[in-house]
């Protein structure tokens, strides 16, 4: 029983619209040919896909099951075409990198510098996004790789590799009584106003911080929220409150702020950085970029609580040999 892919696409559109007129308009065809095509499809299948008995078109029970499998088949067919075209064209036009701001303090700039030395003609587009939006970008193919904070929700088909792990420290005003403490406990901050990232920006870490405070005997009084680490540090410097931030915040060198270790903070309460990408159909430029990032990661991993994997990696600064590239095979554009 041969069924054309075009007929399946027509069925999916009609199933989404449940209206022959709107479906025909979406498909750019007249309504009678669409009705005839659906009838022929039902005849070939041997069962009805739609219930036309009422005033509205509705999917039959068999049609609902068929819709799910048809959508999956069409997606697989589209993926196959995309991958084949990419392989045939040797697509190496642009590499789009998503990143959170904290990735700029260390590994990302170093990786860009080393990678561009090997691929000087490849256009690189940097796209600053929160981790949640990077997960969406990876799923939709609008970014090739992301520097983000795990974990990711709905990350099917996405590879995730830890590259940095920072212990959290207390960020306090420099005139605070805690600023020079050598034995600061989390419970010492119980009466302080807290400045945190919005929960929606990093729900996992936000929940862990609240949980840690409760375990220390208090519920943090969050009086301010800010989306950028630099903004939080500026608010701390102005005396608006205290915060828990990764130790890499020291690289921002904001005057008026002291970063103080918390002696009783759980060792697994960390600020993690990872790279994420879709292995399926990954281009040579992306694979090489990942190799370079892996090779440099140990040199930029945090000194306390680092989770960067070091096995099977060359020493920091020594890059693995690049994948072979035949001259003239890559379709590239000059980076502006």
Give a description of the structure.
This is LysR family transcriptional regulator. Belongs to the LysR transcriptional regulatory family. Helices cover 38% and strands 18% of the residues. It is of the alpha/beta class. It folds into 2 domains: 85 residues, Arc Repressor Mutant, subunit A; 231 residues, 3-Layer(aba) Sandwich (D-Maltodextrin-Binding Protein, domain 2). The strands form 3 sheets. Strands 3, 4, 5, 6, 9, 10 and 11 form a 7-stranded mixed beta sheet that branches. Strands 1-2 form a two-stranded antiparallel sheet. It is elongated and about 80 Å long. It starts with a helix and ends in a 36-residue tail after the last helix. The C terminus is likely disordered.
What key phrases describe this protein's structure?
9 helices, transmembrane, 336 residues, 2 domains, D-Maltodextrin-Binding Protein, domain 2, Arc Repressor Mutant, subunit A, transcription regulation, alpha/beta, disordered C terminus
């Amino acid at each position: 029983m041969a069924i054309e892919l075009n007929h399946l696409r027509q069925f999916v559109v009609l199933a989404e619209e449940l209206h022959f007129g709107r479906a025909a308009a979406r498909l750019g065809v007249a309504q009678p040919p669409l009705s005839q095509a659906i009838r022929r499809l039902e005849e070939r299948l041997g069962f009805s896909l739609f219930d036309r008995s009422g005033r509205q078109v509705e999917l039959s029970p068999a049609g609902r099951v068929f819709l799910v499998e048809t959508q999956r088949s069409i997606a697989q067919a589209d993926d196959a075409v995309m991958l084949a075209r990419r392989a045939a064209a040797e697509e190496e036009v642009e590499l789009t990198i998503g990143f959170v701001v904290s990735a700029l303090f260390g590994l990302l700039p170093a990786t860009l510098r080393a990678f561009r030395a090997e691929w000087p003609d490849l256009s690189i587009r940097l796209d600053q996004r929160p981790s949640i939006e990077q997960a969406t970008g990876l799923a939709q193919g609008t970014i090739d790789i992301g520097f983000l904070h795990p974990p990711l929700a709905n990350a099917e088909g996405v590879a995730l590799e830890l590259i940095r792990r920072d212990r959290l420290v207390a960020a306090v005003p420099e005139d605070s009584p805690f600023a020079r403490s050598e034995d600061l406990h989390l419970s010492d901050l119980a009466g302080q106003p807290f400045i945190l990232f919005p929960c929606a920006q990093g729900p996992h870490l936000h929940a862990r911080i609240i949980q840690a405070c409760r375990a220390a005997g208090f519920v943090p009084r969050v009086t301010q929220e800010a989306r950028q680490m630099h903004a939080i540090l500026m608010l701390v410097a102005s005396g608006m409150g205290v915060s828990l931030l990764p130790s890499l915040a020291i690289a921002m060198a904001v005057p008026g702020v002291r970063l103080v270790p918390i002696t009783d903070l759980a060792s697994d309460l960390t600020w993690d950085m990872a790279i994420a990408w879709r292995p399926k159909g990954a281009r040579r430029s992306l694979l090489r970029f990942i190799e370079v990032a892996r090779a440099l990661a140990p040199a930029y991993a945090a000194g306390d609580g680092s989770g960067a994997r070091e096995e099977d990696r060359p020493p920091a600064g020594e890059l693995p040999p690049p994948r072979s590239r035949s001259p003239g095979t890559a379709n590239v554009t000059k980076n502006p």
